[in-house]
């Protein structure tokens, strides 16, 4: 199977029900549509849609209005592009993400805490691997689960090592790919950390989840199997701004030439 190496982020504007949402909802859909088209035209292999604008986030279960609204965003993106689409429901509603993916024919989901536990800005979040693996079997076993390792904007419990957590994700948690990120959105991912994870789970599919730009993408892809890119391809490298076609194309060129 050929897996996407370059996954572009579609950061949805605040959805209905979120504190910062501003009608009309069509504005949210149009931004997502345009960002998706620009990323595909630049040469990205896949897209990941998430409710980035909904902060502050619920820890584990979002309300029905979020599921309904994000489903419309995902479907809008799916109909606008030909490349695979995935979904992430922040902060950690994997069951909602799986449900949206199944209903909208998305190919994969991202889960911030699949196994173990992390201390986050939403409080302690526990993994739901047992529930998600069973729900996936019921809805669509072909949907892939991309799982964060020591997810950004969070700290692990005392005593848990990076290597132990990586093995748990890859061998016991049911992750189809392990995501390694920096400390926060847009923050660089350490190549040293990436190499450490590669040694711990050499057979796992490894993705970089933050801080990738045109200067670093080539070297990161020498260690990882793929990258997830958001901030670096936005106008002025500001995560809240629309996708910049020139920045997106430059990153793709750097990745291909490397």
Description:
This protein has 258 residues and is an alpha/beta fold. Helix content is 37%, strand content 18%. It contains 8 helices and 11 strands. It has an 8-stranded parallel barrel with strand order 1-2-3-4-7-9-10-11, surrounded by 5 helices. α1 crosses α2, α1 runs parallel beside α8 and α2 packs across α3. The longest helix has 18 residues. The radius of gyration is 17 Å and the shape is globular.
What's a concise summary of this model?
The protein is α/β, with parallel strands linked by helices and 258 residues long. It is 37% helix and 18% strand. It has eight helices and eleven strands.
Rounded Rg:
17 Å
Strand content is 15-25%
* Main sheet specs: 8 strands, parallel, barrel
Secondary-structure element sequence? EHEHEHEEEHEEHEHEHEH
**Major β-sheet strand ordering:** 1-2-3-4-7-9-10-11
How many helical stretches? 8
Class based on secondary structure composition and strand pairing? alpha/beta
Poorly predicted ranges:
none
Helix content: 25-40%
Overall body shape: globular
Question: How many β-strands, per DSSP?
Answer: 11
Report the average pLDDT across residues: 95
- N-C termini distance: 22 Å
């Amino acid at each position: 199977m050929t897996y996407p190496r370059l996954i572009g982020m579609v950061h949805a504007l605040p959805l209905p029900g979120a504190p910062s949402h501003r009608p009309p909802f069509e504005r949210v859909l149009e931004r997502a549509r345009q960002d998706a088209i620009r990323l595909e035209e630049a040469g990205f292999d896949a897209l990941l849609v998430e409710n980035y604008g909904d902060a502050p986030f619920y820890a584990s279960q979002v309300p029905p209005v979020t599921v309904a609204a994000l489903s419309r965003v995902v479907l809008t993106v799916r109909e606008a592009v030909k490349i695979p689409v995935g979904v992430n429901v922040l902060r950690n509603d994997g069951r909602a993400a799986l449900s949206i993916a199944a209903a909208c024919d998305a190919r994969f989901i991202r889960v911030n805490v699949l196994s173990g536990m992390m201390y986050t800005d939403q409080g302690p979040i526990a993994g739901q691997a047992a529930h998600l693996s069973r729900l996936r079997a019921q809805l669509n076993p072909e949907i892939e689960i991309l799982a964060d390792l020591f997810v950004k904007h969070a700290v692990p419990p005392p005593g848990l090592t990076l290597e132990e957590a990586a093995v748990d994700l890859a061998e016991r948690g049911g992750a189809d790919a392990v995501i390694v990120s920096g400390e926060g959105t847009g923050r660089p991912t350490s190549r040293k950390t990436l190499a450490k994870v590669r040694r711990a789970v050499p057979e796992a599919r490894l993705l970089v989840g933050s801080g990738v730009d045109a200067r670093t993408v080539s070297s990161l892809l020498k260690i990882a199997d793929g990258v997830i890119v958001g901030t670096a391809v936005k106008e002025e490298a500001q995560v809240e701004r629309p996708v910049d076609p020139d920045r997106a194309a430059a990153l793709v060129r750097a990745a291909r030439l490397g």
